[in-house]
């Protein structure tokens, strides 16, 4: 058995154990380990370095993005350094910050041999690493690290897997980039041995003559090339050719939900809606939480005139991810076709809240007509009874949904004059003022809501946004913290996660302000 076949066999065993957690964990520096854990002071030092890099390059990208990208790279480099120890160069955290397209390490005894490290977070079956032609040219190997936890500022510990390595001689790439999955890597336990043989060859010793198959050939046997060609054909509008390539890819990997999804998209484009539905069915069968497949299947049902089936699919997509505007917009279209105007306007309004761009172009004329009809109805009610606070409130809501924020504010103010304790009028007035850019007025409205009801969570959250917009970071932080505590107590985990992220962003900015000072 040749060395490549052996390392591929060991890699297959490693992947199987990776899914069960039965991994080799050795804490001795310089010894092979499939798992490396980084925490405590070691992690703190990495974070401090990455914050310095974030501050240095904040003009090029958002501070948090720079920090996270640097931390991902540094975590991976720490794994390789621990595994290879003195066999490779030390990482100089004062000078080197990675991401420059050069080698991350070189062999201590042979600086001409470079080692590139790539770190990624993701699912085992979907995660991919990539390398550029420049990196291929400058390095002897690329080492791939899989990060179990999502990389963020507050993570106290990271479990890092040595996912494998590839000799750059296996990568036939003259220009651009190439990507690969974990199944294409060689087992990490062979990394040091391979580098030792390269070092021996450089020193004039005998070197193995085993021919190395280029990755471009390996890809063809692992369906990557067919899938990539399908993607390229789809992008240029050649849907028949895309189908041909996706068919080839599925013959090799009949359980790949993503390829079924892509083939469904191609079939939809050539109006083969029944075929598209069959492909989305397969994608959903493999991955029942594939929200995109539910949404696209709903579109195919819609094209076939089966609006109830479309609504069922959009319901599932919204259940899985309630923060995607297009799911609500599509369900609104289907409900409108069934004559459910009230349901349609509720969905369309929700879509606008998530993505205000939908308010610019109303693709569903019946929704606009419904809103205008409602507004006219409430205007008649107000004429009959000028002291009807509910009628003013309803007309204000209709005006708000139509984007007439000034008209809505005028009506909300009238509601408050009639009923000074109408809390929803204050809150909605705050939202309209915020949308107009009147942040000071919005803060005043939200503050009044809190005076009436100190447990109105969304008022704290929205006031925090308005205070932030005015540059009052401390006030914003206080409101977000209050909202976070209340969301947690009420079990609203998605809302809690969202506001916690805002708090972290503010704390990061505050720490950077201190550094600047």
Q: What's the gyration radius in Å?
A: 29 Å
Low-confidence stretches: 93-101, 205-223, 360-367
* Molecular shape: globular
Q: Kindly report the spatial arrangement of strands forming the biggest sheet.
A: 1-6-5-3-2
Query: Got a strand count?
Result: 7
Mean pLDDT: 82
Question: Keyphrases for this structure?
Answer:
two-stranded antiparallel ribbon; alpha+beta; Serine Threonine Protein Phosphatase 5, Tetratricopeptide repeat; 517 residues; 22 helices; 8% strand; 7 strands; five-stranded mixed β-sheet
Q: What secondary-structure arrangement, pairings included, does this model have?
A:
Elements: H1 3-20, E1 35-39, H2 40-56, H3 63-84, E2 105-106, E3 114-121, E4 128-132, H4 133-138, E5 141-147, E6 157-167, E7 177-181, H5 191-202, H6 215-221, H7 224-235, H8 239-252, H9 257-269, H10 273-286, H11 291-303, H12 307-320, H13 325-337, H14 341-354, H15 365-384, H16 389-401, H17 405-418, H18 423-436, H19 439-452, H20 457-469, H21 473-489, H22 493-516
Parallel strand pairs: 3-5
Antiparallel strand pairs: 1-6, 2-3, 4-7, 5-6
Q: How would you sum up this structure, described in words?
A:
- The chain is of the alpha+beta class and 517 residues long.
- It has 3 domains: 3-216, no CATH class; 224-365, Serine Threonine Protein Phosphatase 5, Tetratricopeptide repeat (Alpha Horseshoe); 378-516, Alpha Horseshoe (Serine Threonine Protein Phosphatase 5, Tetratricopeptide repeat), CATH 1.25.40.
- The chain is 62% helix and 8% strand.
- It is built from 22 helices and 7 strands.
- It has a 5-stranded mixed β-sheet with strand order 1-6-5-3-2.
- A hairpin with a 7-residue loop joins β2 and β3.
- The radius of gyration is 29 Å and the shape is globular.
